[in-house]
Amino acid sequence: KPRITKEDVVKFAEEYVRRNSSDGVFKYPDKITGKELELMLEKVHKDKLSPTKVDEFFVCADFKGKDGNRYDLDFFVQGADKSNLMVDKTSVVVHKVNGKENYTWNYNKKKDLWEKKAIIIEKEYPEPTKREHPGDPY
Question: What is the DSSP string of 4-20?
Fold first, then answer.
């Protein structure tokens, strides 16, 4: 079977967004905010495209929102050959808004795959000091 190239995946991802857009606007229901985003594709990152497992590629794409924000969406393209590619619609997620990450990626050497990792948000106020023993005052 013909090998899938990065160019094939980029082309497919761009075409997927175009096919699922109306008047150049790709509508995406943001799972984090619950709002429907209206996005215009700026570019698919060829340099960030990578295989994640057999017949699956990670894709990162930049969008400009009608709300004035910039969005980075991550999704996965799957398929054994370039004529049968598809997007795993359940995996599409907003990675960044105006450059601020909602999560990050870590490479798991043992499993030989990339895994999502939650961002730890610093609290505005520090946690109260832990007591050495039960009954100790603050």
Answer: PPHHHHHHHHHHHHHHT
Residue that has been written with the tokens 């980029």 in this structure: 10
pTM of the model: 0.78
Assigned token pair, 9:
């995946």
CA distance 93 to 32: 9
The whole-angstrom separation of Cα 82 and Cα 122 is 43
- Contact between 65 and 37 (Cβ < 8 Å): yes
Nearest in space to 10 (alpha carbons), one of 34, 56, 51, 43 = 43
Measured between alpha carbons, how far is residue 87 from residues 33, 57, 84, 103 in Å? 22, 10, 10, 20
Chain segment 29-47, per-residue pLDDT in tens = 988 789 999 999 999 998 8
Contact call for residues 81 and 57 (beta carbons, < 8 A) = no
CB proximity list for 87: less than 8 A, separation 6 or greater:
13, 16, 75, 76, 77, 78
Give the 3-state DSSP-derived string for 77-105, with helices as H, strands as E and coil as C. EECCCHHHCEECHHHCEEEEECCEECEEE
